[in-house]
Amino acid sequence: MITNSLLHTITEKEKFIVSNIQQLYGGDINEVFHVSTSNGEKVIKLNSNTYLPHLFKREKEGLEALSSTHTFIIPQIEGWGEIENVTYLIMNYISSEAVTQDHWEFFSENLALLHQQTQEYFGFSNDNYIGSLPQINTPIYKNAIDFYRELRLIPQLQLAQQSGFTFKNADRFLKNLENLIPKEAPALIHGDLWNGNFIATTQNQIALIDPATHFGIREIDLAMMQLFGGFPDVVFKSYEEHFLLEKNWRERQPIFQLYFLLVHLNIFGSSYFPRCQEIISRFS
Q1: What molecular functions are annotated in GO for this chain (predicted)?
Q2: CA neighbor of 223 nearest in space, from 197, 262, 249
Q3: Which residue among 102, 127, 171, 192 is the active-site one?
Q4: Domain that holds residue 145
Q5: Same domain, 58 and 137
Q6: Is 210 a known active-site residue?
Q7: Rounded distance, CA 96 to CA 30, Å?
Q8: 20 to 30 A from 264, CA-CA: which of 140, 164, 193, 278?
Q9: What does the alpha-carbon distance between residue 2 and residue 245 come to, in Å, rounded to a whole number?
Q10: What distance in Å separates the CA atoms of residue 147 and residue 238, rounded to the nearest whole number?
Q11: In sequence order, which residues have a C-beta less than 8 Å from that of residue 134 and are 6 or more positions away?
Q12: Domain total of the chain
């Protein structure tokens, strides 16, 4: 548990005067605070500097990559460092508003624009994190199938096996991916786009937070959006008006949801196992 005295030590180091501290909830990895200061409203995220090495440095890189596309409002990094065995990241606070139809239109159009940013290889400049687990981003694959199989699914399947989870037909499923995943170019994606990382804000704009940014398969973002809900169907229809998806994309969504379900299995345990096995069996 982080004490207010530590927060005051951090803000003194960063030359802020604090007037109010409020803890924010919704994530599972960091302690997060809304801090009112002499320099405006801030968000301060805190984590042990031994638990997840370079976590905030990797988050900073991901946020900067998203910001460079000028598609969404992205928190601006105002400070980061280490103090008393704790790493911290300071960003500007983004206020939220009730979501309107104009917000959804802005979101779908700009998500399509974000996904049109590309490069030659799948991956990213550095490995980062998906939740509290390492996400390998070595840019060695030009093929979406190889990237998703080798750098996304297999590491999570191996981690699950180390915890005693064994899946039937996993080898056949991995082979079948060759016939299931479309051959598209790498797309810059948020990488963890559930509705908790989406903020409707002023002037009908959308802010995105807490990314697992990389050049990946754009349907991964859409799959995460549908996994836990919160995004109406109009978003997906509007997205396709701006950036048409390969046919049968809705039928493929469980294949890409499997990555996130395996991550949840490896973090939270066995309740996610049946859903993972069902997807593997269905596409084997």
Answers
A1: kinase activity
A2: 249
A3: 192
A4: 101-282
A5: no
A6: no
A7: 20
A8: 140
A9: 45
A10: 28
A11: 127, 128, 155
A12: 2
**Torsion from C-alpha of 113, 119, 124, 125, nearest 10 degrees:** -120
CATH of the domain at 213: 3.90.1200.10
Q: State the average pLDDT for the chain.
A: 95
Q: Answer yes or no: do 74 and 116 share one domain.
A: no
Amino acid at 248: N
pLDDT tens sequence across 150-201: 999 999 999 999 999 999 999 999 999 999 999 999 999 999 999 999 999 9
Distances (CA, A) of 154 to 127, 135, 144, 159, 228: 16, 11, 14, 8, 23
SS3 183: coil
Cα separation, 154 vs 170, in Å, equals 10
The alpha-carbon radius of gyration of the chain (Å, integer) is 19
**Residue 62 is encoded by which pair of tokens?**
């991901």
The gap from C-alpha 253 to its chain's centroid, in whole angstroms, comes to 17
Give residue 169's identity as a one-letter amino acid code: N
